[in-house]
Amino acid sequence: MTRVVFLLVPELHLLDLAGPAQVFSTAADQGLRYELAFVAEREDVPTAQGVPLKASVELPSLTAGDLIVVPGWRAPALRDTGRLQARTLAWLRAHHTAGGTVASVCAGADALGRAGLLDGRRCTTHHDVQDELARRYPKATVVRDVLYVLDGTVVTSAGIASGIDLALHLVAVRHGPGAAARIARQMVVYARRNGDERQASAMLRHRAHVSDAVHRAQDLIDARFADRLALSDLAAAIGLSERTLTRRFAASTGLTPLRYQQELRTERAEHLITQGATVEAAARAVGFQDARMLRRLRSRGASASA
């Protein structure tokens, strides 16, 4: 069970909180093991939109696998807003020191900065306060005009709706792109990647369409990309003929179902290789019988990006 603890600061923006909370709540509804908690320095927490919230005042003990998220607050300026006590900042710092992940939405990055977690790191925040964040934490590198930035176990996002993108990415890292895609579909949002990185995920590149049948086919391929998937079985599961599925899939994604599966396999294999796996081991792990096909697809991808 992963605990996701939201640290609520007075005058917080509801969407900064609700967006990521909805992602992890939907993940839990879909069988992933997440438990949400909400803490604050005072039980009653006013919000920028006027809806009062209640939270626990007990700061829980966490494990390295747990996550702390600091939603942003109304901040025409960072200075003199979003105050937090020294013990709360020490709790943030201790969780990070123990190997845990800390994340922020919008002005929440300032809380991480006050905890000393931005020094020497790349980070981002809402465009209205980017300059001030850079001045307040000169040892940090503020990345501008991106959705979110990951630097080790410190994750910051630009604000408001980008907290959804950040949370979907964290789910994808832990459970794979298929899980993130299913949650995005349930929430009726478009899963995006960070603006300063290559759009590396095939799932994300090829999900910007409105064909429900193709989305359902992609869900099946995402979940079983390492298995042998016969086109006839895939079409039967969707309730279409093989020819109709292939035609609709190509019209929506620009790929055949097989080519889409190969892209998923290749990208997963690339990740395994960067983590130290041999090409042969990575090929077997993603469903190739040997490394020859993986090498061929990697070569094709390198030529296309050259």
From TrEMBL:
Pfam families given in the database record: DJ-1_PfpI (PF01965), HTH_18 (PF12833)
Keywords: Transcription, Transcription regulation
Keyword Mitochondrion applies: no
Top-level lineage group: Bacteria
Entry's Gene Ontology molecular function annotations: DNA-binding transcription factor activity; sequence-specific DNA binding
Natural source organism: Streptomyces gilvosporeus
Protein name: AraC family transcriptional regulator
Domain HTH araC/xylS-type: 215-306
